[in-house]
Amino acid sequence: MTTLFTDLNSYAEWRNGIPATKTVGFVPTMGALHTGHLSLIRAASAQCDVVVVSIYVNALQFSSAGDYQRYPRTQTEDVNLCSAANVNVVFAPLRTDLFNEEVVQLVQPSSAADNFEGSDRPGHFAGVVTVVDRLFSAVRPTHAYFGIKDYQQVAVISDMSSQLHPDIAIAVCETEREHDGLAMSSRNRFLSEAARASAALLPTALTATITHWKNGTTQTGALIEVARATIAQDPTIDIQYISIVRAGSMDQVQTVGSTDVIIAAVVIDGVRLIDNMSFTNA
Fold first, then answer.
1. Residue 138: C-alpha distances to residues 165, 178, 179 (Å)
2. Phi and psi at residue 236, in whole multiples of 5°?
C-alpha cells in the first residue's frame, strides 16, 4: 500500500524507521505521471528495497509565472498510478518544507548547463539542481532514477550529485516512446492534434541521422543537416538546436563515433520538445 506524505516531518519520521541496511530508490517528479515515469519506478523497484516518488512542481526552474501555473497538477491520479505500481511512499512536500528561507540561495550548476537548454532557458538548471539538492537532503535515498530523455539535465544533476551527494547512486534509464517514436513527456498533452502529428518528425529526424552515420557519414555538419532537412518537411516546426555531443557530457564533436549522442529541441505550436538518441543504441 502506498503512503502519501505531504509534509517533511511526517516523511522524516517514516524515513528514520528504515534500517540502514535497506536501499531506498528515489524517483523525483513534478507529477503529471506517464509511462516514462512508471519505467523509472519499475527500475527502482527492481533494484531497491523501498521506492519513494516525489511530486513537487518546482517554480525555480520555470522562466515565467505563466508556465509554472500552466503545468498540470494531477496529484490524485498520480498517487493512484504510484499505488498501482507498488510505490512505498509518495512525498508531496510544501514549498516551506524544502525552502523555509525567504530568498533561496541557488546552487550553481556545472559547465554542462552552459549551452543548449541552459542558454535557451536562462536560470533553468540552477532551479533544477537547487530543488534536486533539497529533495536529496529531505528524502535521503541511496539511489536516484532519471530518464535519459532529459539528457542535459541528467548531466547537470550528475555533476551536482557527485559534489554534494556522492553517496547517492545516480541511475539513468532509457527513454520511453509513443507508438510513432515520440518521447513520452508531460508536455505532449499540450499538443493539438495537428501538432502531435508533426511532433513525430523529431524522432524520425534523429533516426534518419543515425542511419546516415551507419552508412558511413561521420562528419557532424553533414549529419546535422540530415536531421534539419527531415524536420524542415514541416515549416511550422521551429528548430531550437540540433547538435552531437560526447556521451556523458555536453562537449560537441566534429567526427561522430559510436559513443556519441545527437540532441535536439524544437517548438511546435508553442510547445517545446526535446529528444536525443545514442549512436551506440541505434
1. 12, 33, 37
2. -80, -10
Q: How many helices (H) and strands (E) does the chain have?
A: 11, 9
Instruction: Give the model's pLDDT for residue 68.
Output: 82
So what CATH class is 186-277? alpha beta
Domain ranges of the chain: 3-173, 186-277
H or E element at residue 205? helix 201-214
Question: How much is the pLDDT for 67?
Answer: 81
The Cα 85–Cα 46 span in angstroms is 12
CB 37 within 8 A of CB 27: yes
Burial 60-69 (b: 16+ CB within 10 A, else e): bbbeeeeeee
User: 165 an active-site residue?
Assistant: no
- Count of Cβ atoms closer than 10 Å to residue 223 Cβ: 22
Give 186-209 pLDDT, tens digit per residue.
889 999 999 999 999 999 999 999
pLDDT tens-digit profile of 3-43? 999 999 999 999 999 999 999 999 999 999 999 999 999 99
Q: What is the pLDDT of residues 96-110, one digit of tens each?
A: 999 998 889 999 999
CATH topology of domain 3-173: Rossmann fold (3.40.50)
The residue written with cell numbers 517533511 in the block is 8
Residues forming a β-bridge with 245: 252, 261
Residues 199/273, Cβ–Cβ less than 8 Å: yes
| Catalytic residue, candidates 37, 124, 143, 165 | 37
pLDDT of residue 49: 98
The 3-state DSSP class for residue 153 equals helix
